[in-house]
Fold these 2 entries.
Entry 1:
Amino acid sequence: MDNKKVKDIKDIFSMSIEEMPGTVFECSCGRPHGVDIEKMIVRSGSVMEDVIETLMPYRDGKIFVLSDHNTNKALGKSVVERLIAEGFHLNPFTFEPGAHDLLPDESSIGRLLIEMDQDDSYILVVGSGVLNDIARIISFRTNKPYAIIGTAPSMDGYASVTSALVINGKKTSIPGKYPSAIFADLSVMRDAPMIMIQAGFGDVLGKITALADWQLSNALTGEYYCEAIAGLVQKAVDKCVESTGGLFNKDEHAIGCLIEALLLTGICIGLAGETRPASGMEHILAHYWDVKAIEAGREHPLHGNSVGVGTVITAMLYELVAELVPAGISYPSVAYVAGLLEKIGAPTSPAQLGISRELFLDSIKNAVHSRKKYTLLQLCYDNGRMDECAEILTRRLYD
Ligand SMILES: [Zn+2]
Ligand SMILES: [Zn+2]
C-alpha cells in the first residue's frame, strides 16, 4: 500500500482511465476504494512499446502468448513477431477453430496447462472474453501474472476479478484477480466484428438498469450504495451513448468511448467490491438463458447481446409495475433502450437471440430464484406479480 496514491473519490471524475491504476480513493460511503491494476493503456495506435516495458522484468523466463485463430490473425501474429525481434523468449499458443465455439471449460483450461512450460514467467493474452476468462484462472492458480491486449470492445470482463467458466456443464463464476495490465489499441478494436461491438454496447446499456436495481435495493432493503461509484458508471454510460451513431461506422472515437465505459464499469465493480454497479436483473436474465443453453448443449448468444435484450425486458417490467417502484428511482424507458440498440443493429427481442417462447416465459417466472441479489424481479415476486407479468411480457414479445 505504501507507494499508492491516495485521493478523494471526487477526483476520479476528472481522471483519465490511464491515471487510475494504483490509486486508493477515500469516500464518504465508508468503503475503501482501490484500483489494483498496474497499467491500463487505451490509445489509437500500437501499444507495443508499453507491452514491452511491462514484460521487461520477466525477460529471463518465457512469455506464454495466448490467442485463438481469429485474434492471432488480427493481432497475435504481429505481437509475437515484435516480441521475438525484441529478444524475448516466447511460448506462443493459438487455439485452432474446432467444431464448436471455444468455451471457458475444463478442456480449454487443461489444454493451456499442457501447453504451458515450467519456465513461462508471464501470460500475455491477445483476445477478448473467453481467452481472458481462461487466462485469469490459469494465472491465479499458477501464480504467474497476466496481461491482456484486447481485440474487441465486447464485454466488461477485461477489468474484472472473476472468471466466468463452464465447469461440469454448468456456468460457474470463479474468483481470480485483475490482469496486471490491460492494453487496447483502438485501430485494432474498430476492426472487431460488428456483432462484438453490438455486444459491448449491450453490456454498457445494461448498466442503466443495473443502477436502477441498485437504487431500488438500497431504497427497499437498505443495501449498501455508493453515490460516487454509481455516478461514475452513469457518466461512462452517458459518454458511450452520446457516440452511439459513431459505433455504427466503427468510428475510433466512439469505439474509444465504448471500451472506456467497459473498462470503467469493470473498475467500478472492483471499487465497490461487488458486482452491484454493473449487473442487475438484465444480467440475471442473460445468465439464466446462458445456463439453459449450456444445459441443453446449445451455443448461446454473446453475453452483451443477451444483456442488451435483458435491459429492454427490464425496462418493460419497470414500466409494467411502475406503481410498485418507490419515487426517486430512475429507470430507462423501453423506447430509449430499444432505440439505442436498434441504432447499431443490435438485437432488441429474445426471439432475435433465438430464445424460445417457452424459455422466455420460464426465465421471467423463475430467474428470481437463481440469484440472491435483490432486483426488480424480487420486488415483483414479493408482491405476487411475477406470473402475471411473465404472461404479459411473453404475449407482448411473441404474439
Ligand atoms: Zn464510495
Ligand atoms: Zn456484463
Note: Residues 155-156, 203, 206, 283, 303, 307 surround zinc ion (ligand 2) (CB under 6 Å).
Entry 2:
Amino acid sequence: MAIDILPRRCLRGVTPYSPGKSIASVQRELGLKYVVKLASNENPLGPSPRAMSVYRRAEKQCALYPEGASPQLRQAVARFHKLNADCVVVGNGSDELIRLLCEAFIEPDDDVVVSQYGFIRFRQQAALMGGRVLEIPMVDWTHDLQTMAMAASARTKIIFVANPNNPTGTYNSEEEVRRLLDAAPSSCLVVLDEAYCQFAAQWDDYPKSVPGLLKEYDNLVVLRTFSKVYGLAGLRVGYGLANPEILSWLDRIRMPFNVNLPAQQACTEALRDAAFVRRSVALALSGRENLSVSLRELGFAVQDGATNFLFARSPIPGRELFKALLKRGVIIRPLDEYGLSEHVRISVGNRAENRTLLGALKQVLGVAV
Ligand SMILES: Cc1ncc(COP(=O)(O)O)c(C=O)c1O
C-alpha cells in the first residue's frame, strides 16, 4: 500500500550521501582477501598509538555517559590553538558541525554560497534546510573567492569554503581569504573547512586562520577534523572554532552526548602527539609526489594540490576505472556525484598500498608491467 505521509518539500529530491566503499563490503561482495582502500583520505599510518592507548584505557568507563560538551577535549583544543574554551565546539566529525551550522542559521530561501566543485556536503546540507544554493564556478579547479564574495548579499547566510578543497585538492591563499572576509556582509558566516590544513601548511601563503584570522573576523568559523592527519576517522570527531556567540547556537542544538567517551579522551591525547602528525604529513607529501609522477606516466592529468589525496583526469572514464580497480581489490573514488565523469580522487596510501594501486592500474590500462 502506498504511504501518504510526505517528508518536508525540500527533502523530496535528496539522495543519500554516497561514502567511499568500505574494505569489508568489497571483501564480502567480491570474495577478495586483500583490499586496499584509497577512497576516503584516511591515514595510512593508522591511528596515533598514543591516542589508542588512551582509547583502550577508556573502555573501563564505557558504562557511563560521556560529558556532553566534551569539556576536557574543548580545553585541550583551546590550549592547542591559544584560544578560550568558549571559542571551541566539538562535533561527531566535522560533518556534524556542517549540519549544525546549516540547522542553526539557514531559513528556507536564505542564500548559501558554495563553489562548483567545493566539498559536496555543504550544498547537500544547505539544501536540506531549504536554502537557495548559489554555486560559483571554479577557476583552475580552485575556489573563486572574489566571485563568491560578489555573489553574497544581505540574503546570504553562509559562504562555505573548503581550504584545501575536497575533491580538487587546491587551496586559496591568505590574501584571497582575507579579501573574501573583508567583502562578505557581516550578517553572513564564512565557514573555512580546514580538514586537510596540515598537508598545506608548508606553503607560505596558506592562511594562518587560527588564531590569526579568527581573532580579526567575528563572522569566521573554522572547522577541523581528527579524521585525516590524526588517523581517527572511525572515532568521528571534529571541532569548530569561532566567536562564542555563534558557537552557543550550535551547542544548543547538538545531540546531548554527541561525542562518545573514548573518542573524547583519545582525541585529547592525539592533539599532544605532534611527532605522529609530522610523520603522517611527511608520508603523505612524499607519497603524493611519487604517485603523481607515476600517474602522469600512465596518462593521468594530475592536478597540483596540497592534500593527502590526488585529483586527476583519468585516461578512461572515472567510473570504469573505479569498477576495474575494484575487481583487483583497490578502492578509489569516482566523482560522478560532482558531475566529473572523467576524474577520480585517489588517497595517498603507504608504499605497499601505492604499489598495489600502480600494479592494478597498469593491468587495467594495458601497460606492460
Ligand atoms: C573537506 C572536508 N570536510 C569535512 C569532512 C568530514 O570529516 P569528518 O570525518 O570530520 O566528518 C571531510 C571528509 O572527507 C572533508 O573532506
Note: Residues 49-270 form a domain with the Aspartate Aminotransferase; domain 2 fold (CATH 3.40.640.10).
